[in-house]
Records
---
Amino acid sequence: MSLPFFLRTAGTLLLALAAALLCVWLRTPLPWMIGPLLATSIASILGAPTHSWPPLRNAGQWVIAAALGLYFTPQVTALVAGLWWAIVLAVAWALGLGWAFGRWLHARHAERIGGDARTRWATTYFAGSIGGASEMTLLAEREHGRSDLVAAAHTVRLIIVTLLIPPAVLYSGLHGLDASLPGARELRLPGLLALSAATAAGAWLMARTGRANPWFMGALLVSMGITMAGVELSALPNGATNVAQLVIGVSLGVRFRREFLRSAPRWLLDVALGTLGMILLCAGFAWLLAWGTKLHVATLVLGTSPGGIAEMAITAKVLQLGVPVVTAFQVCRLVAVLVLVEPLYRWVGPR
């Protein structure tokens, strides 16, 4: 008999908290996210009844987005707007790299995927695209691709990026050299309540209209808009972002199950190898952009990496790098991929 979901959720959160505190004691990078991610991943693979409650994950994304939006002061916004050409290049790079990754997966696995040419190409194309996991999975399913393989590919990619890039930046000594301060740095209860209400309303509206990643994007856009207008309502409590990182780490870690790893080991191995290759290629691209923009290379490594917005922006915040630049690059890429990836599929896919 399985445990009720609330007991599984509570047990998973206690395990994640213990892992986070251990990582804090060990002084590991991003302890509040990487500790829970590793602990819940290992527990899930071993067969433990781990569980992530979606409303907690949504609340974590909401808190992180509200905190990130506070960095977009009018001065910083002007700086980011001047980088429009670099952001356009980064979007084109991401689309091209995702297409190439999809072609490589197609060459390696087309015969194993089964189905007709449309199924094979839809599966590999959307598995290689650097976009949101849920959105790419839905698009693949709409085009008769294998959604299970697409979801698995994005899970592996996201976790590898989250586990590798933050420690690499930390131990390279490149952190803390490109800091941006949030607009509001003082905690004010009335302002905090107003900020919470406004960002929650933005997230709710995005969710109601069926937009992608609503709890992150809605809260981020509202928080950015308030800060860009020069209004400083309140900073967020210090512990709020730690708790948010914990629940996001748990939501990533519980995706790994024993049956998940047994389902298509060759596929997962090639996705892992391809992700490592993409990380290296994106790092090289970031060095070129750093030369052209005169920005710090570590900031652009996070901005162009094939990871998720929340994870890379959290890394920038914790390691004191250019949070607005990283957020702008990642958000613009996500929006562009969501808008362009399906038309491009119809253009380059099988007739």
---
Amino acid sequence: MSVQFEAIETRSGVIKAWTRGVPVEDAAIEQLRNVAGLPFVHSHVAAMPDVHFGRGATVGSVIPTKGAIIPAAVGVDIGCGMMAVRTSLKAAHLPDSLKATRDAIERAVPVGNGKGGDHRINPASVETQLKASGLMERLATIKAKHRKIGTHKVDGQLGTLGGGNHFIELCLDEAGAVWVMLHSGSRGTGNMIGTYFIERAREELARRVLDFHVPDKDLAFFLEGEPLFDDYVEAVGWAQDYARENREAMMMRVLGALRTTFGRFKTDKAAVNCHHNYVEQEHHFGADVWLTRKGAVSAREGELGIIPGSMGARSFIVRGKGAADSFCSCSHGAGRTMSRSKARQAFTLADHRKATDGVECRKDAGVIDETPMAYKDIDAVMAAQSDLVEVVHTLKQVVCVKG
């Protein structure tokens, strides 16, 4: 299959965008140009079909850098990603009303931001998981070098959802099988790590004498060989590992709640657990690079990933095609068409209730910023990246838990 990207014109640098048939705001294009023009960007920047305006760099972009990392491009929701498990439950096993099922999930997993989103008393399973993971010892090493990083939320938030666009869903696939799918990251500790190092990078930028222009202070960077570079790599790696553990802890608690509700059932051994806000070392176009996926999923040939829609749209389990031009990546979702504040102004509760008809979920004013109309058309997004992934399963949610 021929590639589907379009080249976006820039004064310097190259942008390859998988955005045919998908709207992209001018501010996002300007951010892509800003990043592509940085001298340490290798080959080009790839824009996914869900691309939209973000902090410093767009959400939905893939940025390869040589000898440098931009902390704000990785963001503060470090390691945020998806996990999905297929169960042996079928649609016929589900009751007509799923309110009790949603309630059971919300009792099992703390949701939201602030104190309400923490475990009031840590479950024994969380304590055991933390001890076995080695995360606490690694965090102590990081904290010893950077005492301003807050670490007080680390134990109370393992196995918790958070707020915003994080969610837990029960979905039905094309064969009527029940899946559990969830979306979360490194929670408060990851946010504090990201915020701290973004500020440190901006301080370093103010001290640097450069022979090139940095058009946005949120594109401040660390250079390989500097102490802060190594410290950031250590800290961001910790946050990514915590995020993965967090999703696994939540999944265990959700499955436990479902077994209490529905009795015994089996799960597939091969669960999908993938980051979509992270940085790691990879090899692309003849060079070893630091690859930042800011709202993008790894889609190497044969690799499984998850592309969720919105609260009222379909989601997809996909298999990567290993497209080199995208740095073996695909979109991480549908992508927003407007800011949260604009969504709250543009849509009413009646709009939201209509868009989520048939889904057991919150239908109050607190989630209007997450209403399906605030997101791009997931079918258009999938069509724009058909050369990057193939669809393995199509999921439609019947329960959606939001923070």
---
Amino acid sequence: MLTLGIESSCDETAFALVQDGKLLDSVISTQIDIHALFGGVVPEIASREHYRLIGHLYDSLLAKTGIDAEQIDNVAVSRGPGLLGSLLVGVGFAKGLVAGTTKKLIGVNHLHAHLLAAGLEQDIEFPALGLLVSGGHTQIFLIRAADDFVELGKTLDDAAGEAFDKVAKMLNMPYPGGKYIDQLGKLAEPDTKRFTRPYLDNTNLNFSFSGLKTALNLYIEAHSHLKLPSLNDVGELFNGNRDVAELAELCASFNFTVADTLRVKMQRAITQRKEVGDAVNSIIVAGGVAANSMIRETMAEVAEKNKLTFTLPSFALCTDNASMVAYMGEQLVAKGYSHGLDLDAIPRGRKIPQDYLHSLC
């Protein structure tokens, strides 16, 4: 079975080919440099860039792999959540590829695909608890199979990734700034008492990082010397020409607060699953913020403490990519699922329906 994956949910345009659970190859174009000029993703620009690039990238993937379009059995596409205009470019292209052919079309939940991405590199032990940490989402899922996700908790306002990027912007770091906070945080020990871990005085599994973001804003305004004079000065943080000890401690403390908040909620999820008799065999951590070193280390410790398998995608599979879309699409088609040409793109904020067509394999 050969499956083409298409990703265009935000600011990456990507294609990948997966055959029988193995990645053959992928291509990707990122718009980070364009949106960095504005300090964040501009939806109209993003959709126009997807439209400009999508045909060329598709042709380049087929040329790289030597695959003929007729050999493709399934076309999987991110249908949401994401930016509506961007999603429509990918979904429309996917429909064009399958129209008038026997290829199967399958719309993929972008968030679920992130959590299954590690399956391209290692076996996932179900049932699993999945922690998704990305720019727009922080969620916990109970995952029993590729078609069986139960949301246990979600962010109520700012996601972890949004908090990282907004704090970086307060410090006058370029977009996306989460990577700079992570890199600086490695240079110092955190003050674990500096910031209060947000939204823990409850029994639920939801998240709220807006208060932490506000606390950082107040701290940075009171210590304005920590701000970079300009975006172009970020290189000085790592070339030894600037004393970064105080800034590094701030970043380490912020990293710790986010990671420890995630730890508490994930441990709570494990405990609650045990109390209701749900088996859990592994922990999956995925999404762009799963590349953060302190989050990776903290979640590994949670898994070890609870004697669970720790499943973590490689750095390349943490960010938006088409490999995860193709892989999940293949898993769904193998279960007999597909979509018709009436497949809708679902923007962020709307629930993605389980509206598959189903046939016996």
---
Amino acid sequence: MRWSGQEVGAEERTQALLGMSGLVRSVRTPEFQGVTFHEVTAKSALNRVPAASSMPFDWTVNPYRGCSHACVYCFARSTHRYLDLDAGADFDQQVIVKINVAEVLRAELSKRSWGREMVALGTNTDPYQRAEGRYGLMPGILSALADSGTPISILTKGTLLRRDLPQLQQAAERVPVDLSLSIAVFDDELQKSVEPGTPTTAARLATVRAAADAGFRVTVFLMPIMPWLTDSDAQLDEALARIAEAGAAHIVFGALHLRPGAKEWFLEWIEREHPELVTGYRRFYGNASYAPAAYRKNLAQRIRPLLRRHGLGSEEDEDQPEQRRRAADVAARRSAPAALDLMPQPALF
């Protein structure tokens, strides 16, 4: 499972240890220039999604933290700060690998309290990023989920999904299996710039075709749609035509959102690669994480006729401010007391 690569020097190792428990070792390999992999033993594998989230699932598994895909817009970048690593280059180059994740997951799923709710993979960092080709964590994870009767949902940019299609077909005979590919950029040069570590768009479309031919109803996440870069009617029409031709059945679409961590990194990229767009992006995202509501409404109005033209079912990205507010309100009502206690309360401050 592990590489026999060169160990990181003591000074770099000390830096990598900051905020990181269960570290076994840190390694580099010539195949991944500039990337350090920190192999850790995890105490848990299942992550509960906060009640106030707008996501349509309650549990996730993340075998990796950080991602060599290096997408400049990745919303998960800020999670690296919990490890005392930065949300920019460290997120791309300091990748945490939970080498025992399959074993820990199997133990958690065997508990009598486990309700066999759907588990989502790929909601934070990609389980089929390039390192998976060497660590091979996903087959064990999929086996643990299927053996326990737990439904599986996968979202990935990685073409390595094709390796596991036979296993996923077998799993689908026992549990629901949902497969989604993230394909946001259909201009090759732009894709190399904004997602430098990802497989090509053509390779991902070929993976959609392989999954569809294997009997799966594949969803494509056409997101983030980036203002002034990938959002023209012609660009959207070409993207949907190619997605439909690849055999996808469903689309999830949504405009770029930039939370802290991702925002700073993305805006630096805009300033460097597309200085003509700096004013517009700072107007949209300078004081907000989401594109303006009017822009998102216009985007939906323009894309829906194109979806119908190409025979694709669709839904909008659920991670939007309106949905998040509704989810937070529901969570607050669920946790509210049944009746008001009108007795005086001590001051807290």
